[in-house]
Design goal:
The structure holds 3 protein chains of 3 kinds.
Chain A lengths: L11 E6 L5 H10 L11 E2 L8 E5 L2 E2 H13 L5 E5 L1 H4 L10 E3 L11 E4 L6 H19 L4
Parallel strand pairs in A: 1-2, 1-3, 3-5, 5-7
Antiparallel strand pairs in A: 4-6
Chain B lengths: L8 H12 L3 E11 L4 E10 L4 H11 L3 E9 L3 E10 L8 E10 L4 E3 L9 H11 L2 E3 L50 H28 L1
Chain C lengths: L22 E9 L2 E8 L7 H5 L4 H9 L6 H16 L5 H29 L3 H22 L8 E2 L2 E2 L8 H24 L1 H7 L7 H6 L5 H4 L7 H4 L26 H25 L11 H10 L2 E9 L2 E9 L8 E5 L1 H5 L3 H5 L7 H7 L6 E2 L1 E6 L5 E5 H20 L1
Helix pairs in contact in C: 2-3, 4-5, 4-11, 4-15, 5-6, 6-11, 7-16
Classes of the chains: A alpha/beta, B alpha/beta, C alpha+beta.
């Protein structure tokens, strides 16, 4: 683990709402803005999955969003980490028994996807930051420079 | 109506009766008192025959530009009920009346004329009713789908309770063995409820009969 | 002119913006820089909530109704519970009505400040985005202090509320209100007096009064055009009947009822002040009494199952009028019919007249000006009328265009 010593690589996050209720989404923005201010660590929301290291999914996957979500996943370069944010992204939460919901995101992604779960309804900004930290550690491990 | 004046709920009722005569039925007026000063929320429900529906909307449009909040609809078994929630007298503090126009459409011919020429803002809600209830809106300027996915079957409507409904399409996405979650819904809950009620009744009767038989012995 | 290409949903979702969240599409037809047609295409976020609600009992639907939208969770909870109360003839206590009113207004404060930040971001003032989100945390703290959670409060129940606002909480409430009163001047200075923001917002995205009325628009979007529609005043619910309120329209403050983005900003800012006043009066006037008129769960469940009826619940949400319709039938534990209508549903239709004749660089701010709740204009598709070619602009590129326009205007001002 190297996290405490250096922040040599800025972590870029891409956020996808696949049918969430907005609650997690505003908390994500809250995590970026001054109170929690993750940008001081180089954690930043970016506008394209092609720039991202971490994918932040919120909400259950709706029928209309299914293909698009998978496409975004494919467009993100490896190595990548999926951060499943909120209870409804994890298990679909209160949204069940519906014709328009395909299921939680982890059932749709390929099996080799590395997933980190961040729970809460909605997640608290502190918890999101913790999840991103976990993602960071994993990515550092992959790079093999944790000695 | 003169600009700047507003109609009371009783005047509105008379207005409808004058314009539509006997074709307007089941007029129900409600007043809900709220707050310490107990100001009333006034709500009016009325049913209009389908043939006179446009006349009823025109009668509202005579007063001022009508505000259509939304159209709600449901499957009542034999027919489909649409409720147009209009608001009258907005801009007059405390005087607004909710006018809920009900129209019944037989299931064999679920058509209704459009009102987009009178209330242009009604388009979204009319398109929604086509998607979700299978109502045919005549002369609708834009009949494309709005909310449902393109691959969604054409003859399925989410708010119907009959065989064109959705029960067999809804997916249970939780882990079925996990006890923390609610269990999946029964298929065709209404049918099942009726069946179960029948069963319960039957077993009760049987028990009763047994008891009576036992007494005799 | 060639045949225009018919386009479908086959658009990559593309970048989703940190400010406006949900996936959402608006299709534009362009003649050079000028927009000649615009069409909003919602539905990406359709979860079938009404269908799910019609298969659950009313108690279970309360948490579901909060999760229709995370920003207006109080609004939907309120409408669902009041509609059910109306249907079943349950009357909430007066103390509950006051607590509900206070919570609704707190939510309006947080929602309007959120919007102001988004609007500033869309025209390239990221400092203002961070400033507004920083001051927004204060009201979030208060909401957490009262309800126990930052978003999704679970405060409502049939017949009242589940958490009280006791007198030892009042100092914290007043402190928060004081904080916003002190800051208000600065907000007005930023959004109403700054010359470059004025240039970007004045005469942009104009909605005329006639259009606003005909399209049944709601909330600050139409009040900026001078339409007097506000459920809090027209048909006072909860504790609003006890208050002395007036419609917030620009002409009340000596401005023209133009209906452009500037007027909409003005209306929202003035509503902040109004909300502060409402909360103050409510806290001062709060009657003593029980939190709920149905403290016994079994009796309440009995009522929910044994009674039938239909009711409507209306509210003035931060974004405008919203309505729920609920019908319950005796003997059926689940809800028989549930219709939800949020404010953006009606305001979608107002996009078209607002976009007509505007420039591409103005798309982000106009899209944001109705405060769309169902989502984010994630990727706009632009059809050139002359060539019939379909270009797609990513949200980022559009945002860049918007920022460039602000810079141009600034530079022009200096020269």
């Amino acid at each position: 683990m190297k996290l405490s010593k250096t922040f040599d690589k800025a972590l870029w996050v891409f956020h996808i709402n696949s049918g969430s209720c907005n609650a997690c989404d505003i908390e994500i923005v809250a995590a970026v803005t001054p109170r929690y201010d993750t940008e001081r660590f180089g954690i930043k929301l970016v506008g394209s999955p092609r720039h991202a290291d971490v994918l932040l999914f919120t909400g259950p996957v709706t029928t209309k969003m299914k293909d698009r979500v998978l496409r975004v996943y494919e467009q993100t370069p490896d190595p990548k980490v999926v951060l499943v944010t909120g209870n409804c992204a994890d298990t679909t939460g209160v949204y069940f028994d519906s014709y328009a919901i395909e299921g939680p995101i982890d059932t749709l992604l390929p099996e080799d996807a590395h997933i980190i779960y961040v729970n809460g309804c909605p997640v608290r900004p502190e918890n999101i930051i913790n999840g991103v930290k976990e993602a960071w550690l994993y990515l550092e491990e992959l790079r093999g420079d944790d000695k | 109506m003169k600009s700047g004046s507003s109609l009371s709920i009783d005047e509105l009722e008379n207005h409808f009766k004058k314009r539509l005569g006997d074709d307007v039925e089941d007029i129900k007026k409600e007043k809900i008192r709220e707050g310490l000063k107990e100001k009333a929320i006034e709500i009016m429900w009325l049913t209009v025959k389908r043939e006179r529906f446009r006349d009823a909307v025109n009668a509202l449009a005579e007063l001022h530009t009508p505000h259509l909040s939304v159209t709600s609809g449901s499957d009542m078994g034999e027919h489909i009920e649409l409720i147009y929630h209009f608001q009258v007298n907005y801009g007059h503090p405390g005087k607004e009346v909710s006018v809920n126009l009900k129209v019944h459409l037989p299931k064999k011919d679920p058509t209704i004329p459009t009102i987009t020429d009178i209330v242009p803002g009604a388009l979204t809600t009319e398109r929604e009713k086509q998607e979700f209830l299978g109502v045919q809106v005549k002369n609708i300027p834009d009949s494309r789908r709005l909310w449902l996915a393109d691959e969604f079957p054409e003859d399925k409507y989410p708010w119907r309770w009959d065989e064109t409904g959705m029960e067999d399409m809804s997916r249970y996405v939780h882990d079925e063995e996990d006890e923390t979650f609610d269990k999946p819904i029964a298929k065709y809950p209404r049918k099942k409820e009726v069946e179960e009620k029948g069963k319960r009744k039957k077993s009760m009767e049987e028990k009763k009969k047994k008891k009576e038989d036992g007494d005799q012995i | 002119m060639k045949e225009k290409e018919e386009t479908t949903y086959e658009v990559p979702i593309g970048p989703i913006h940190p400010a406006l969240k949900e996936p959402f599409l608006i299709k534009f037809k362009l003649d050079g820089e000028e927009i000649v047609d615009a069409e909003a295409r919602p539905g990406m976020n359709h979860r079938g909530i009404e269908f799910m609600g019609m298969h659950r009992n009313p108690m279970k639907v309360i948490p579901l109704s909060e999760r229709i939208c995370g920003i207006c969770s109080i609004v939907h909870q309120h409408m669902f519970t009041t509609a059910t109360e109306h249907a079943l003839g349950i009357e909430p206590t007066n103390r509950a009505r006051y607590i509900r009113t206070i919570m609704c207004e707190l939510e309006r404060i947080h929602s309007h400040i959120l919007w102001a930040g988004v609007a500033a971001h869309e025209i390239g003032f990221d400092t203002h985005l961070h400033f507004t989100w920083k001051i927004r945390e204060k009201v979030m703290d208060l909401l957490e202090y009262i309800a126990g959670n930052r978003v999704n409060y679970s405060m409502w129940t049939f017949g009242g509320v589940r958490r009280d606002i006791t007198s030892d909480m009042y100092p914290k409430v007043f402190e928060t209100l004081k904080y916003y009163e002190d800051l208000y001047e600065k907000l007005e200075d930023i959004f109403l007096d700054d010359p470059s923001i004025k240039m970007r917002t004045q005469d942009v995205g104009v909605l005329t009064k006639e259009d606003a009325l005909a399209l049944c628009g709601v909330g600050p979007t139409v009040r900026a055009s001078g339409v007097k529609k506000d459920v809090r005043i027209d048909q006072p619910y909860a504790a609003y009947g006890d208050l002395d309120l007036d419609y917030v329209i620009p002409s009340r403050y000596g401005f023209e009822n133009k209906g452009d983005v500037f007027s909409k900003t003005l209306v929202r800012l003035k509503e902040l002040l109004q909300s502060i006043e409402i909360i103050k009066t409510c806290v001062e006037q709060m009657p003593e009494g029980e939190m709920t008129s149905e403290p016994k769960k079994a009796a309440l469940f009995n009522k929910l199952e044994k009674r039938s009826g239909e009711g409507i619940g209306r509210i003035e949400a931060p974004r405008g009028e919203a309505i729920h319709y609920v019908r319950l039938v005796e003997g059926r534990s689940d809800i028989d019919c549930w219709k939800i209508r949020a404010s953006t549903y009606n305001n979608l239709a107002t996009y078209r007249p607002m976009f007509m004749g505007e420039q591409i660089a103005d798309i982000p701010i106009i899209a944001a000006c109705i405060d769309p709740c169902i989502g984010c204009m994630d990727r706009a598709e632009i059809i050139d009328v002359d060539s019939g070619e379909v270009e797609t602009y990513t949200k980022e590129e559009l945002h860049e265009l918007s920022v460039k326009k602000t810079e141009r205007i600034k530079n022009r001002g200096i020269k």
